[in-house]
Amino acid sequence: MHMGESMSIHSEQADHRWFLPISAVVFAIAAFALLAPGQEALAQGASDESVLEEIVVSARRYEESLQDAPVAVNVLTAEFIKNNRIQGADDIMDVTPGATYEMFSKMQPVASMRGVIAPTPGNASSEASIQTVIDNVVVTKDFMKAPALFDLQRVEVLRGPQGTSFGRNASVGLIHFVNNRPSQESSSAFTVTGGSDELIEVDGHFNRALSDTASARFSFNYDEQDGPTESISTGEGLDGDQNLAFRLGLLLEPSDSFSAYLKAEYSEDRDESPVRHGFFQPESGWTCLNRAYVYGRGDADPGYPDSPAPPGIPPGGAGQYNDTWFAPCDPFTTEISDQSTGTIFETDRDIITLTAELAWSLGNDLTITSITGYMNGETDSLTDVIGSPNNVGWQLVQNDGESLSQEFRIDNISSGNSVRWLAGAYFLSDEEDRVEQLQFQMDGGRVGPWVPTVRETGGFNETSSWSVFGEISWDLSDRATITYGGRYVSDDKDYVTRARGWGTNRQLIFLPGVDSLQQDGGPVVCTNMGPPSPTCGSESDPVGFTDHLVTGSWDDYISKLSFDFEINDNMTMYALYSEGFKSGTFQPDALNPAQADLAVNPEDSTNFEVGLKGAADRYRYSVTAYYMEIDDVQTVNLVVAGSAFLGLMSNIGSVETMGLELDGTFLITDNFLISGNVGIIDAEMKNTPDPVDDTIDISGHRPPGAPEWTYAVFSELTFPLGNGSDIQLRADVRGRSDVFNQASSRTGPRAGARLRPEIHNIGARISWIASGGNTSVSLWGKNLNEDWDIRTFGPPSPCCSSFAAGFKGKKSYGLTLAMNFGG
Q: Coil, strand or helix: which one is 145?
């Protein structure tokens, strides 16, 4: 939805009667294929050299053809990532059917898949329903996700529960980043990019054989860019980013029966903190006239001195309602707090990753694999949480965490026997210490001297987890295979939480030791310390609580059963039943012991799907229909009490979701390729009172993170030149329906206040590729129609019925030079 358009809120009652017809369609296509022309007829007129490359996946922890894997997975190859400028996890989700992604910063990612959101940012004790895996090692801490993408081999996005072969919870889906490994073949590559918003990127790799049995690969990445949001007063970018990363891999193959892959990686981010922008979305539609920020009340409040307007912002007149700043209509133009005092809004992140993967080939085609992963990360971030010319509200976040995981597997997959199996055990120990401090201007944003009011929450969590898992596949015939998998998991968590505060702001009302905060002729007064006082506590003697311990233990057994049948040499169908589990968690923002004791129950998912996959020299496609039910879905909701707010986690009864996913690549002619995907989702919440107001029933509404549809289409046209070089034209369009950000706020005047708009974005690229393909020059553009989206929602603004939000979707463009030397 765009500014000026009307908006209607409806109950979104779902009709699930179409799931069986969709399933029938999948099998009808299979039946049609039995009567359809063969591969030779479809490829008539094509040269023998113009064929699609086979795609290999490791979705079941061993390599197999994408066509043979009975699982819904889309694969982004290195070439696709480069040609379509896939820069991060948000771009990956944009091209995944039925998926969405939002994040305030790299440390706070929130993804959804098949209509189920995985909200965990800011929670030291929780993990996402959609797991992130890098080179077979699970990334358990959210603030260490969203990695820099460089020297990748491929990215696999698995939709639906993935628990029986991967060693960690993945109740809704999984993203697997597979980096290039060292090889005996010498190669090197170098890519440099410059573009809009002062973009500079440099990345590359060097691969060498050290001996007949050892090889090494060194990869690097550096990028920096001004942010898309400009300052009104200076015209400079406010939310730029910078990343520097190195990766060193060593592959040892001393014999035919043993190999060792060792990897060390360091990544640092030195970003400007992302900014938020006030917006207003009443039931009647969007409006630009958003009275959001008070900066000079003049004679309306004689007790508060006037504050001069920042450069470029016209001063307001005298009076209660005129002395306000109207947020601009442009979502990419705003202002942040006055930084003349030396305040630096910055987000720093440092991550060290160590991986050791050892493999032994034994007799009888047995293979033993050991995977050890260690990650250590730190973040330090200070952000203008509201976004205004005044010092209204700041957020300081610090994370310090590490994880150590160990996985053992044994299998006979390489045997080719009619019965193949895999068994494994997984152990995890991780910990995280998180501190979040909200700093407020006196009295919720009124102009005057900066008198800090501070509310600080924090938690230290330790997780110990172990699981055993396995799968067995039995070939019923040359064309039919049945597979069963199971996994038992046990999680123990100890969480020590704390909260404290001092000052005058209403944000302190939930803390122990604060009886009430009253408005009496201007400033907020605290009555918890005897006679009314303008302050509650102090930095040396704060109100609140500390060292409150909560513990939890959760375990479960989940299983998977699949049947796949090869219809002919070009087509396979499968049916799958799978279960997922995500353990319970605790409150990240608890402001008193009673809130801290509100443990969040585990999340369980049950998934049914049928799929059809087809592949030949010139085409590859998949069709998947699914039904999934998730019980006790974990959600985060913003609780607002007057101008005070906090985020509380809770379970909603259940989510029922079903849908259709289409994915295909077609080589229309020798020089014209088209690919794309579509996701259609029908999802609703069941037995669900509003998490904020339990007197309201929101059953039947769409759950958070559930678009009604998504799509992405890509085309590539190549023109050979006489000297052996090529000109390549590429274009893409990606879109998504509107989608809610949280479960609550579905009724009343704020019914659409946390609704992300429908979007459609266009990208294009023109490349010159030298003879042999080792050098290319590309001119590219993204979001050319600048159809903006909301990337994150913030708390309410200090006045009126508005929220702060971060935006994305600004047009960008650039020039890329890529050179490859050998390999």
A: coil
Does residue 2 register a pLDDT over 70? no
What does each C-alpha distance from 138 to 76, 133, 135, 508 come to in angstroms?
A: 19, 4, 8, 38
pLDDT in tens, 562-605: 999 999 999 999 999 999 999 999 988 888 898 889 888 999 99
Nearest to 184, CA basis, from 157, 148, 216: 216
What is this structure's pTM? 0.87
Name the residue type at position 86: I
Distance CA 501, CA 524 (A): 15
φ, ψ (nearest 5 deg) of residue 363:
-70, 165
With a pLDDT cut of 90, the percent of the chain lying above it is 48
Q: Do 103 and 743 contact (CB within 8 A), yes or no?
A: no
Calculate mean pLDDT across residues 172-183. 93
Residue 238 token pair:
């406010």
**Separation of alpha carbons 404 and 684, rounded Å:** 37
What SS3 state is found at 143? Answer: helix
Indicate the pLDDT class of residue 390, thresholds 50, 70 and 90.
low
| pLDDT given for residue 363 in this prediction | 82
| Non-local CB neighbours of 714 within 8 Å, separated by 6+ positions | 84, 674, 675, 676, 730, 731, 732
pLDDT at 328: 66
List of domains in the chain: 16-288+328-503+538-821 (2.40.170.20), 504-537 (no CATH)
pLDDT, position 524: 58
Query: Among residues 795, 791, 796, which one has the least CA distance to residue 806?
Result: 791
- The two tokens of residue 659 are 């849908």
Residues near 170 by Cβ (< 8 Å), separated by ≥ 6?
129, 130, 131, 158, 161, 162, 163, 580
- Lowest-pLDDT range of 108-117, 667-676, 688-697: 688-697
How far is 567 from 555, CA to CA, in rounded Å? 39
Contact 593/585 with Cβ under 8 angstroms?
A: no
- Say how far apart CA 213 and CA 229 lie, in whole Å: 51
Nearest CA to 357 among 367, 346, 343? Answer: 367
Query: Taking all residues of the chain, what is their mean pLDDT, rounded to a whole number?
Result: 81
d(CA 70, CA 574): 6
Secondary-structure percent of the chain, ordered helix, strand, coil, rounded to 5: 10, 55, 40
Highest mean pLDDT: which range of 275-279, 747-751, 778-782: 778-782
